[in-house]
Design a protein that fits this description.
The chain is of the alpha/beta class. It contains 29 helices and 49 strands. The strands form 6 sheets. It has a 28-stranded mixed sheet that branches. Strands 1, 2, 3, 4, 5 and 6 form a 6-stranded parallel sheet that branches. Strands 48-37-42-39-47-49 form a 6-stranded antiparallel sheet, covered by helices on one side. Helix 3 packs across helix 4, helix 16 (about 345-355) runs parallel beside helix 18 (about 380-390) and helix 18 runs parallel beside helix 20. It is globular.
Length: about 1250
């Protein structure tokens, strides 16, 4: 193996003779497949000092070290040398170690007993005591770190490898998907998909993968996704689309948006809004998007999957069982891939990996394996299920028994083949499997385990067996908690949980079993979730003694279900799970005795019966209900003896908390957002098993002293109360198990002395009143603290003891009076995020900062002239506000994002070359040359006083360029890589660079640049999808326009919604628009004739064969006289086919046009004018095409009056004369008319013209005669 540059992601330390050709070899290959740079084979390289140094550097440069302890591990001196170096790196720079105990006991490794004893006895003969001591200490330390034991996965090496890879991906923050397991033949599939792509194409690539369920479509798509990931900063793999869409299309949209933006989505409540949001986020982006398992065109429509929204280098892949879906998605037939079944060699390899954890079977099993392969037909899912079922089975008789069963099943009946594994389950295991099939896919593992255990099942053992047989699987779902601070998302922590998943064929098999067991009769059905069956059971009061679960679909259907009979569930004696969310009822239904889980969100009852209890219920969710009162009386003998979870979140009418004596075994209570609840019952302190308590956004005035008796409590949230809490119970420090304490907005007058006894506390958010100026020195007693936020306007300093919090990773101080930070702040060796917000001038300088910082956000009036950034090698995000004298930034060599706002600095020095985002919002007069910023993707400048931007054309990766309120700026030539340009309120900007070379530009927004001239080169921007112009008067104005007053002759708004342009026949466009000022009050009559300004809003879609552009324009119509008595007409002659600055050409179609208006009257006063906003209504508009016969450049009033005569009558002045004098005619042809083929009947036009001339001549003769 060649020498590496010393930087690896993972270093594997192992004894080659023991594990090279099995476990470690599998692990190394799996890590490589996930694009993880892993170092292996070190043992073969030990020798000379040069190689020794290189290997130690490899350990030092790695982020993760994985020692694999085997029986012969300690025989190798080099394994122990490497281990000692890993431990040194672990102590010095926090390198992560994951120990793997392959075939040894942890105690043997820790105490050097067993096989390790003899090895160390040999080492004692040739090594000094100090070396031996360092090895023993290393072994002792590493065995104290949480790792993995092969015996805990029952010797299944493949499963252990997958666990390690998933863990490594999480730690390395790799966006690769971790679930491509045993990728037999995947490379060939990926190659075939790549062959479908046109490498030279600049178009969006739409590819479809289709085929039967279980063939491996998802695995192929994941493998392709991972292979292309690094080429696409914007990417998303939307898994289980069919299943997720069953929860609602809005839910599906949120999943896509969250995956793209990495932020939680809250404000999407309908499909149309979701589509608009998706278009906004993906428009013009170079996207790698895979939508897995689509079964309806509605799903694609909801996700706004249309080629025109994406950058032309994007790749979109859709997987489906149904080729018709690809037809609906308009995927070219040449871009479709149908995977074939595995061949015999691949089938044997896949089956062997699951059955034997090796690439091939033992010799004496080869014949049996080939029999299995013949029956499996090359289907990967079947091979996986059968192999998992037979794993660990050493009796050939069991193999032969299974083969006999399989031979009786038709070849194409996949579900019956899969059912073989189900048939050999125990009764409880079958119940758990069928529950999962019907109800719990997508649920958290810990939640469903607690429910199944409450049913009396050995849930963990059953889940292990079901997972081992590939009937269930759990995927690791990771989410990132963010703090939004000073306009910037600061990453708090990553958390993960396991989520239940299941292959659709397995799920279909399970549902088929339920139908077969019911013999086709609804009364015998064990589980109900169909919206067709549930009403039938309720309405007919059907006896269903076998039913174990009912889940009412959460949609309009549930709101129409009425449960007004108290005993509607009385005959369901076996019912364990009941979800009736949204159902209506005036009574509380009697719950069956065996019920374990009950959910009725949106419960319509206002008061619960005083005697409502249930002996076996484990979880109850009544969130969002209308309940005002519940369990407020003292219980007698009846109680909820099994209830662990009580959720009353968002019960906004709830006046007081329940008496918790009803629920002695609660582990979680959620009363969040119960806004009228003023007190917490004193019995809360009796809940000795309580782990989580949520009281945020309630109206409670104080916490009862009894809360301090909650010895098991880990999480307490009393944030954002409707009124300040003021004080904490004196014995708060007795909560020894507390991990999270959120006191945001509490305004504490004092902190109890014993709060520092919270030895397990990891997250503490404090909000202090004005009477508190300093935190106590005893804060260093919180040894486990990871995240500390302190809010307090009068906090003047942090105690020096803060710097002894060795576990602290995030520190936030928000104060108006902070004067000083501890001098030894740099001693916080674990700190990665520091946020300071100091509103006054009290903080004069910063001490030396910890070198471990990755996020630094400072809003304080301090100088950075003496700040040493060279120490901050790991700093990635820097945000500075109100600072000055900013120097030395180039020393922060790994800085990726820099935000500067409201700072008193004239210029910036050289910037670090790794910068990807530069956001400056301050009155800076000079920027450094940007040509060295080759990685810069986003440049935002606001309120800057700079005249020019040097080196902008030299940036090679710039995609977003945003300018705002930069009045003095002159724009240079722009780089051709841009996708988004935004220029807002740059009032002196008059010239825009030619855009004809912008081949990737998708969005152009211009606002408030009143001097800006017409944009050149727009017709050459082929990727443009959005063009917005707002109050750029020179761009949207025209010399040829007319204003007048009169009366609209039609009763309702008439318009032509679309217009096709053919510039070979007509010379230009004319807009005729009629609006009015409705009389809102009689007082407005006083303003008749006053000058007014009308702001006109126009929206249009401009489309042609190859593009579709959303155009939004806002322009001002001046010189309007306010009147509520007459209508006002505005005639706008465009400059040819220049649609408010956008050049239309050829067959461009202007579609879906709309107009709206806002009015503003300027009223003269004694000292100054004042503006009054008034309503303005667009009553009518019409687009006309101007004939090429006209040679007139300025429109005459008379011809304008004639061309609108069919819908508008002009007013006359006081002398009774027309407002317009006679003028030369302009020939106007009114739209619509037939011109789809680009031709027009000129003879008809000439005839009409001749007729009109003769008519005018006749009128002149008559007038002459009468005179």
């Amino acid at each position: 193996m060649a020498a590496h540059d010393g930087s690896f992601q993972v270093f594997i330390n192992f004894r080659g003779e023991d594990t090279r050709n099995n476990f470690t070899g599998f692990l190394h290959s799996a890590l490589k497949r996930e694009r993880i740079d892993a170092f292996m084979d070190s043992e073969n390289l030990w020798g000379g000092e040069e190689i020794k140094t290189a290997l130690l550097q490899a350990i030092q440069g790695s982020k993760i070290s994985i020692p694999v302890f085997s029986k012969g591990y300690a025989d190798s001196k080099w394994c122990l040398v490497e281990l000692a170096e890993m431990v040194r790196c672990h102590k010095s720079n926090g390198q992560i170690i994951l120990p793997i105990f392959f075939d040894v006991e942890i105690t043997d490794v820790r105490h050097q007993s067993g096989s390790f004893k003899a090895s160390f006895e040999n080492h004692e003969k040739s090594n000094d005591a100090q070396t031996l001591k360092s090895w023993r200490e290393a072994l002792n330390l590493v065995t104290g770190i949480s790792g993995h034991e092969l015996k805990l996965v029952y010797g299944n090496q493949s499963k252990l490898v997958n666990k390690i890879v998933e863990w490594a991906l999480t730690k390395l923050n790799s966006p690769c998907l971790p679930d491509v397991k045993n990728p037999i033949g995947l490379d060939a599939h990926v190659k075939k998909i790549e062959d479908l792509l046109n490498a030279d194409s600049d178009d969006v690539e739409f590819v479809g993968i289709w085929g039967m369920s279980g063939i491996g479509k998802t695995a192929i798509a994941k493998a392709f996704f991972n292979s292309k990931l690094k080429e696409f900063p914007t990417n998303c793999f939307l898994e289980n689309t069919r299943e997720e869409a069953s929860k609602g299309l809005v839910h599906l949209q949120k999943l896509l948006i969250q995956d793209i933006t990495k932020n939680e989505v809250k404000y999407i409540n309908n499909v149309d809004r979701g589509k608009a949001f998706i278009r906004e986020k993906l428009r013009g982006e170079k996207v790698l998007l895979i939508i897995d398992d689509v079964d309806s065109h509605d799903q694609l429509d909801a996700l706004a999957i249309e080629f025109k929204w994406f950058d032309r280098r994007s790749i979109i892949i859709i997987t489906s069982q149904d080729e018709h879906i690809l037809n609906l998605a308009k995927v070219d037939k040449a871009k479709r891939y149908r995977p074939k079944e595995l061949d015999d060699k691949q089938s044997l390899q896949l089956f062997s990996l699951h059955a034997f954890s090796t690439n091939k079977p033992p010799e004496d099993y080869e014949q049996l394996c080939h029999e299995v392969l013949r029956l499996a037909g090359g289907l990967p899912l079947t091979l996986e299920v059968w192999g998992s079922y037979l794993y660990g089975t050493t009796e050939k008789q069991e193999w032969e028994s299974m083969l006999r069963s399989l031979k009786n099943i038709p070849h194409k009946d996949i579900q019956k083949k899969l059912k073989i594994s189900y048939d050999h389950l125990e009764s409880d295991e079958r119940s758990i499997f069928l529950d999962a099939v019907c109800f719990f896919i997508g649920w958290r593992k810990d939640t469903i385990i607690s429910m199944w255990e409450a049913c009396g099942f050995e849930a963990k053992a059953a889940i292990h067996k079901l997972t081992q047989r590939s009937l269930l699987k759990f995927t690791n779902k990771e989410y990132v908690a963010y703090k939004y601070t000073m306009g910037c998302n600061m990453e708090l922590r990553k958390q993960s949980y396991e989520e239940l998943r299941m292959h659709d064929q397995i799920q279909a098999m399970g549902r088929r079993i339920i139908i077969e067991e019911s013999l086709g009769k609804l009364r015998n059905c064990s589980r109900l979730l169909s919206s067709d069956h549930i009403p039938e059971v309720f309405e007919e009061q059907m006896e269903t003694p076998m039913i174990e679960g009912i889940f009412l679909p959460t949609n309009e259907f549930s709101r129409n279900v009425c449960l007004d009979r108290e005993k509607v569930f009385a005959k369901m004696s076996e019912l364990r799970f009941l979800c009736i969310n949204g159902a209506n009822s005036e009574v509380l239904p009697q719950l069956p005795y065996n019920l374990r889980w009950f959910s009725w969100t949106g419960c319509s009852l206002k008061i619960l019966p005083t005697n409502f209890y249930h002996k076996k219920l484990v979880q109850m969710d009544l969130s969002g209900s209308q309940i005002k009162k519940a369990w407020t009386n003292k219980p007698r003998s009846e109680r909820f003896l099994k209830l662990k979870v009580l959720i009353l979140r968002d019960c906004k009418d709830l006046l007081e908390s329940p008496d918790f004596s009803w629920f002695p075994y609660l582990e979680k209570v959620n009363l969040s957002n119960c806004q009228k609840m003023v007190s917490l019952h004193n019995s809360i302190g009796d809940l000795k098993f309580l782990v989580e308590l949520y009281l945020d956004n309630t109206n409670i005035k104080e916490l009862p002293e009894s809360i301090c008796r909650l010895n098991s409590l880990k999480r307490l949230n009393v944030a954002h109360l409707r009124q300040p809490l003021g004080k904490l119970p004196a014995s708060i420090g007795d909560l020894k198990s507390l991990v999270d304490l959120d006191l945001s907005s509490a305004k504490l007058e004092e902190i109890p002395n014993n709060i520092w006894k919270l030895s397990s506390l990891e997250r503490l958010y404090l909000d202090l009143s004005k009477s508190m100026k300093k935190l106590p020195e005893s804060i260093d007693d919180l040894k486990s603290l990871v995240d500390l936020e302190v809010y307090g306007d009068c906090i003047e300093e942090l105690p020096n003891s803060t710097c002894m919090l060795n576990s602290l990773k995030m520190l936030g101080i928000f104060s108006s009076s902070l004067k000083k930070l501890p001098d030894n702040l740099c001693n916080l060796n674990s700190l990665v995020s520091l946020v300071l917000r100091v509103k006054s001038h009290s903080l004069e300088s910063l001490p030396k900062l910890p070198s471990t910082l990755t996020h630094l956000s400072i809003e304080a009036r301090i100088s950075f002239q003496k700040t040493d950034f060279s120490n901050l090698k790991k700093l990635r995000i820097l945000k500075l506000g109100y600072c000055y004298d900013i120097e030395g930034l180039e020393e922060a060599e790994n800085l990726e994002k820099f935000y500067l706002f409201n700072s008193k600095t004239d210029s910036l020095s050289k910037l670090p070359s790794n910068l990807t985002t530069l956001d400056v919002s301050t009155s800076i007069s000079r920027l450094p040359d940007l040509s060295s910023l080759k990685k810069l993707r986003i440049l935002k400048l606001c309120d800057c006083e700079i005249n020019e931007i040097q080196g902008l054309e030299g940036t090679e990766s710039l995609e977003e360029f945003r300018l705002s309120k930069c009045d003095s700026i002159r724009l240079p030539e722009l780089p051709s890589t841009l996708t988004h340009i935004e220029v807002l309120n740059c009032k002196s900007l008059w010239k825009f660079p030619d855009l004809s070379g912008q081949k990737y530009l998708s969005t152009l927004k211009l606002q408030g640049s009143k001097e800006l001239e017409k944009i050149q080169g727009l017709e050459g921007v082929e990727s443009l999808t959005k063009f917005h112009v707002d109050h750029c008067n020179t761009v949207t104005d025209t010399r040829r326009k007319i204003l007048g007053q009169g009366t609209l002759l039609v009763d309702e708004l008439q318009r032509n919604d679309s217009l096709n342009v053919n510039d070979g026949i007509y010379k230009g466009l004319i807009l005729c628009l009629v609006f009015a000022f409705p009389l809102e009050s009689k007082k407005m009559l006083d303003y008749e004739g006053q000058p007014a300004i009308v702001n006109l809003n126009s929206e249009a879609i401009i489309s042609s064969k190859h593009r579709r552009i959303e155009c939004l324009f806002k322009l001002q119509i001046k010189d309007v006289k306010y009147t509520s008595k007459r209508d006002i007409i505005y005639i706008h002659h465009f400059d040819g086919f220049d649609w408010f600055g956008f050049p239309l050409k050829g067959k461009d179609a202007n579609e879906k046009i709309s107009f709206s208006a806002e009015g503003n009257i300027k009223i003269p006063c004694t000292n100054k004018s004042k503006n009054i906003d008034v309503s303005c209504e667009v009553k009518f508009w019409k687009l006309l095409l101007e004939s090429t016969e006209s040679k007139k450049q300025i429109p005459s009033p008379e011809c304008s009056a004639r061309m609108v005569a069919d819908f508008f009558s002009w007013s006359f002045d006081n002398d009774g004369r027309s407002l317009f004098d006679t003028g030369e005619k302009v020939h106007i042809v009114s739209y619509p008319f037939s011109h789809g083929d680009g031709e027009y009947d000129n003879e008809e036009s000439s005839f009409l013209l001749l007729f009109l001339l003769l008519l005018v001549l006749l009128l002149h003769l008559l007038l002459f005669f009468f005179w």
